[in-house]
Design a protein that fits this description.
10 helices; mainly alpha; 56% helix; 184 residues; two-stranded antiparallel ribbon
Length: 184
């Protein structure tokens, strides 16, 4: 539809008939939505946006190729990481990039969690427990672990991790930050 609009088609019924799949039943709403002013200036701006999207897709494909090439020596580790619920290709690549494939530098999983900055803070003064916010750490690794935690909470099969990260009533995103170090 956008290409037709850019190329000068202004008949709303013709444009609405270009709808595919789930938009077919909504043709009357499409006719109503397409009724309006779409000038040559709007077509120019729309063409610029579509060209920019194509450029970004090309750049993403190019970067993905470079990342795949750089992580080829770690194919086995990437494969193993992706068996953990919530860890997909992108998260596994970040984990390898930020920690390396050799985990011997971290004495325990707790040391890795501390370095990533996902350990809960502990601030107690005069017997009162204050805010236990996350610690500062590797923000890229912390973000990847948080993404994995949120993905694990949405697994269809009821795994331990899926149950651990279920929304807790304090906001579903907050619970993903509570303890994203469990899989490791």
């Amino acid at each position: 539809m956008l290409e037709a609009l850019i190329n000068g088609e202004r008949d709303v019924h013709t444009l609405a008939q270009m709808a595919k799949a789930r938009m077919r039943p909504k043709i009357p709403e499409l006719v109503e939505a397409l009724t309006g002013n779409f000038s040559e200036h709007h077509a120019f701006l729309c063409r610029l946006h579509l060209e920019r999207i194509d450029q970004l897709k090309t750049t993403i494909a190019e970067l993905s190729g470079r990342i795949e090439e750089a992580t080829r020596p770690f194919a086995r580790q990437l494969e193993l990481l992706q068996t953990v619920p919530g860890v997909g290709q992108a998260v596994a690549e970040v984990l390898i990039a930020e920690t390396g494939a050799d985990m011997a530098r971290f004495a325990t999983a707790g040391h890795l969690a501390s370095w990533a900055g996902v350990c809960p803070g502990h601030h107690e003064s005069a017997g009162k427990h204050k805010s236990g916010r996350r610690r500062h750490g590797n923000r890229w690794l912390g973000a990847a672990l948080g993404t994995a935690a949120m993905a694990a909470s949405r697994t269809r099969d009821r795994t331990y991790l899926g149950a651990r990260y279920m929304p807790c009533g304090r906001g579903s995103r907050r619970c993903g930050v509570v303890d994203p170090r469990l899989p490791w």
